[in-house]
């Protein structure tokens, strides 16, 4: 669905990643029967655009924390290029991000980071992205779900997941709280853990407060799929990936998404 449809092409993708040919090998994808395309969406054929990959100097997140802003992140990449999505294993994804300083809000650098995040999310395409996923250890998330994206998912699944479109949200320094004790178990995926899915239990209803990109306090009350996206992205800011919270025996490749759950796995749905 969203990526290659066979393991051999996945291997080819991996092989060619280093040769920066990834985008050439992505097969067109049709509407999918995904039962858990959370943050990784089907890639419409028309979006088989070259996906520039910026070579990112690998550094531990502690050095990145110390110097990301003064070092002028973003100025190094050539104009027109999008940052690469950082993959699991990179320390920046496994350690907490730091708060955006009030003085940096509205600055050219921060604005560029936010614009990059939105562009990377839409280019993937995905429904959410956290700054560490482009190598920036800052508490920033972006999310958006559209009618078009939702149209790729089976109707039954959309209903069960309570998935509804919402406009682009940019949240700085988000703080998340649950609004009820209800939870939901569904498959989800992550742009930083490409090609896999697992069931994760999430709060059904949450509230997120933080700042808009221009520094105004905002509060979002969300339920269903939007609540899941918010939890997934806020987890990134704590250095937590969905695989840290998944029901381990449900972990699988995207190709095997629709295969039955193993005996003993919890049932999908709201509880
Ligand atoms: Zn993610």
From TrEMBL:
Transmembrane segments: none annotated. It is found in: Plastid, Chloroplast. GO terms for cellular component: chloroplast; mitochondrion. Residues 26-60 are annotated as: Disordered. Residues 26-53 have a biased composition (Low complexity). It catalyses: N-terminal N-formyl-L-methionyl-[peptide] + H2O = N-terminal L-methionyl-[peptide] + formate. Its main location: plastid. Its EC number is 3.5.1.88. GO terms for molecular function: metal ion binding; peptide deformylase activity. One of its GO terms (biological process) is translation. Keywords: Chloroplast, Hydrolase, Metal-binding, Plastid, Protein biosynthesis, Transit peptide. Gene3D superfamilies: Peptide deformylase. It comes from the Eukaryota. Removes the formyl group from the N-terminal Met of newly synthesized proteins. Belongs to the polypeptide deformylase family. This is Peptide deformylase. It comes from Ananas comosus (Pineapple).
